[in-house]
């Protein structure tokens, strides 16, 4: 039924939405029919209208349940507390969320329960209201806690089944009341039942063999509840839209545009081209094009594809697989910029001065034919003189001009002085059966920096282009570090006799100067680590607060719409602002940018945690064959209960418990991030390198445990000592027996 064919006796879509929003009771089909006086055959038409509204993304409902606005909430519902932040704000999500095509809303709980402070996992019956661009919850009643989910591995001991949880912090095994048909050794999902101290586990789903090849990413997918199966309607829509004709577009197929990506890239959503500018007004300058997959042409606002992409927020990358934001028909085929294939692209045309400044830009919908998909290593080898890495004609027509233009962009980068932290990324290499063959830091080449700087230039141009039209912008925001974190950094740097003035204007270069003063000292990695910890977390939002780390005033993500929903929002806004055809940003999304930004920022954090957890499991599996060996490590964290260390060049955080440091008392110096021996002055501090013996590596949980090579903390090993005098000792109750705590403020 189209809107024009709607029978006269039926309410309009807006009238139904208003009724659902204003109703003080659940609004199902019966209530809607009664409110609008619908009887007889008109009820059949109403049912079809409601189904159409669901297909259009206006309302959602499970069979037999009340309707509510898509993305909205019933006025009274059960919520589950999901977070209590550092400011004491309590956040909740609906316990039941039937809308598979959109993520559950995040509500700020306005009042505390009268029965005590709310904690993560608590359930409340709450009245909800939409306030501005967010949701507020007013608790009415604190409810009994529901069953707590638990993932773990079954094992049998003494004729009974037990469940060992996967969380590193989970120290106990739970007796199993119901195996659900699973067997010992199986990876399962279970629910905790009962009350302390008699808590048992009931298996609700068997997931398979936890040690099977490629199982570690599945653990993360289930643990973090990452959607990984596309609904049939979404797959069908992807197949249908992939056959769309490209329509009228700027033809760029004559240009030698190339895509430079990792050798194992699963998708190719960006490609680049550059040439000297022949305009005498830009003498010595360059023309460049950054061509990005035109995802907004295929994924339209409100479609099934769009709702599923927003529910996922981004693609999630694991060593053995990718959980894509879009079905593979789009992500790895029709939207992927492949060699010698005509592809729809959003082209960012840049005019770049010889000083690297972006002088002008324009955006167009184009058709491109990529001249080559080149691996970073091959592009670098070709520039370095390897005659066989890339065909010579491409080196002359594509790579050499790209490097020439990049030298100008790099000048601008150096004058901007962005934050320069050289922290290597780990690369895990698997064989065809999913087994680890190596774990090593990724090599950082000029080819990586080149593509990064072209992408940054396009992202800046996108933000400025939207600002010029006063159009909605989904900024990528990285704010200046808080004073609290700067004070902590200052106290930490004092332990190395490195000065850090708090009164100065803080810029990225401020931290670079600190690292310059440290030079190549042994403690440089730990200072770099602490500088990183002092930074705020980047996020998405419509209010421009700049990107501190890059030293940029306006910055938006534009270059990866295949794998990031934020980029798709930016593309749609450009389409609408510059009248580039179909697929513009909807009025509803334009008015809800803050809420959308909060949602996709949270989904990004979920993906990062899942990726990090999975890498930890792969590293533990790799190291499990080296248990008992002494390894070179670096301390990555220090707490009152011990310190964490990572294996040099491999990674994975493992604990050295304070109880294993010997009989000497160690006190926790919070400002210096170190444990200091009371008698010997021996210290274990953040970033310190030292040999440790690996005593445990659990691939299922990703946990490692180390001990000192001789099993004692005070062995007179000068390599373990840290400069600086021990500070005044403060004893506090509640600390581990061989630890005394020193420092002000709460622990981090």
The largest sheet is: 5 strands, mixed, barrel
Low-confidence segments, ≥5 residues, pLDDT <50?
1-6, 713-748
Physical arrangement of strands within the biggest beta sheet: 3-4-5-7-6
List the quaternary state of the chains: single chain
DSSP E strands, number: 34
Number of helices: 17
Q: What is the percentage of strand-forming residues? A: 25-35%
Q: Helical proportion? A: 25-40%
What would you call the shape? globular
Supply the helix-strand structural class: alpha+beta
Mean pLDDT equals 84
Distance between the termini: 58 Å
Could you tell me the radius of gyration in angstroms? 29 Å
Subcellular location: Cytoplasm
Function: 3'-5' exoribonuclease that releases 5'-nucleoside monophosphates and is involved in maturation of structured RNAs.
Family: Belongs to the RNR ribonuclease family. RNase R subfamily.
Keywords: Cytoplasm, Exonuclease, Hydrolase, Nuclease, RNA-binding
Labels describing this entry:
748 residues; alpha+beta; 17 helices; disordered N terminus; CSD2; cytoplasm; nuclease
């Amino acid at each position: 039924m189209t809107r024009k064919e709607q029978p006269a006796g039926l309410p309009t879509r807006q009238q139904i939405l208003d009724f659902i929003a204003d109703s003080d009771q659940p609004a199902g089909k019966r209530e809607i029919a009664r409110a609008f006086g619908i009887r007889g055959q008109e009820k059949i038409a109403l049912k079809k209208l409601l189904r159409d509204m669901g297909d259009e993304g206006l309302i959602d409902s499970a069979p037999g349940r009340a309707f509510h606005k898509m993305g909205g909430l019933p006025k009274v519902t059960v919520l589950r507390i999901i977070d209590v932040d550092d400011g004491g704000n309590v956040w909740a999500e609906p316990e039941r969320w039937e809308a598979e095509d959109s993520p559950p809303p995040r509500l700020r709980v306005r009042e505390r329960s009268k029965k005590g402070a709310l904690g993560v996992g608590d359930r409340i019956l709450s009245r909800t209201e939409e306030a501005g661009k967010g949701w507020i919850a007013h608790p009415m009643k604190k409810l009994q806690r529901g069953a707590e989910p638990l993932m773990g591995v079954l094992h049998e001991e003494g004729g009974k089944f037990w469940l060992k949880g996967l969380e590193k912090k989970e120290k106990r095994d739970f007796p199993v009341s119901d195996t659900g048909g699973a067997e010992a050794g199986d990876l399962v999902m279970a629910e905790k039942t009962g009350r302390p101290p008699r808590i048992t586990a009931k298996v609700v789903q068997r997931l398979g063999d936890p040690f099977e090849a490629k199982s570690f990413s599945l653990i993360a997918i289930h643990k973090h509840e990452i959607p990984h199966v596309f609904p049939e309607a979404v797959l069908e829509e992807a197949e249908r839209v992939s056959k769309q004709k490209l329509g009228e577009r700027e033809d760029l197929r004559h240009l030698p545009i190339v895509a430079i990506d990792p050798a194992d890239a699963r998708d190719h959503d960006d490609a680049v081209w550059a040439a000297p500018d022949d305009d005498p007004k830009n003498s010595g300058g360059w023309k460049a094009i950054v061509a990005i997959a035109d995802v907004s042409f295929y994924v339209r606002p409100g479609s099934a594809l769009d709702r599923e992409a927003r529910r996922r927020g981004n693609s999630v990358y694991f060593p053995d697989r990718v959980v894509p934001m879009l079905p593979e028909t789009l992500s790895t085929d029709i939207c992927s910029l492949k060699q010698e294939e005509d592809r729809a692209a959003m082209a960012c045309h840049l005019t770049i001065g010889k000083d690297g400044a972006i002088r002008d830009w324009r955006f167009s919908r184009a058709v491109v034919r990529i001249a080559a998909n080149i691996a970073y290593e091959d592009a670098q080898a070709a520039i370095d003189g390897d005659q066989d890495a890339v065909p010579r004609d491409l080196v002359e027509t594509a790579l050499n001009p790209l490097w020439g233009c990049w030298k100008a962009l790099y000048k601008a980068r150096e004058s901007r002085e962005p934050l320069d932290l050289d922290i290597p990324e780990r690369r895990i290499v698997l064989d065809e059966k999913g087994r680890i063959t190596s774990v090593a830091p990724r090599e950082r080449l000029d080819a990586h920096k080149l593509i990064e700087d072209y992408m940054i230039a396009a992202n800046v141009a996108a933000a400025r282009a939207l600002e010029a039209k006063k159009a909605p912008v989904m900024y990528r925001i990285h704010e200046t570090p808080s004073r609290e974190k700067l004070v902590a950094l200052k106290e930490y740097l004092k332990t190395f006799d490195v000065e850090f003035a708090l009164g100065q204007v803080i810029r990225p270069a401020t931290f670079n100067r600190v690292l310059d003063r440290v030079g190549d000292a042994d403690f440089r990695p730990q200072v770099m680590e602490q500088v990183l910890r002092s930074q705020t977390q980047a996020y998405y939002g419509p209010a421009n607060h700049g990107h501190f780390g890059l030293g940029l005033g306006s910055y938006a993500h534009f270059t990866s719409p295949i794998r990031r929903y934020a980029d798709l929002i930016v593309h749609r806004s450009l389409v609408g602002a510059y009248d580039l055809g179909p697929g513009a940003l909807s009025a509803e999304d334009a008015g809800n940018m803050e809420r959308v930004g909060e949602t996709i920022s949270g989904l990004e954090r979920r993906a990062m945690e899942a990726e990090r957890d999975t890498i930890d499991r792969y590293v533990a599996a790799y190291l499990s064959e080296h248990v008992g060996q002494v390894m070179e490590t670096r301390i990555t964290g220090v707490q009152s209960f011990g310190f964490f260390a990572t294996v040099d060049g491999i990674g994975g955080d493992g604990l050295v418990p304070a109880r294993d440091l010997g009989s000497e008392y160690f006190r926790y110096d919070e400002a210096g991030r170190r444990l200091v021996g009371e008698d010997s002055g021996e210290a274990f501090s953040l970033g310190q390198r030292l040999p440790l013996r690996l005593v445990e590596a659990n691939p299922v949980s990703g946990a490692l445990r180390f001990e000192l090579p001789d099993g004692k903390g005070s062995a007179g090993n000068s390599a373990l000592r840290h400069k600086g005098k021990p500070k005044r000792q403060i004893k506090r109750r509640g600390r581990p027996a061989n630890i005394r705590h020193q420092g002000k403020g709460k622990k981090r």
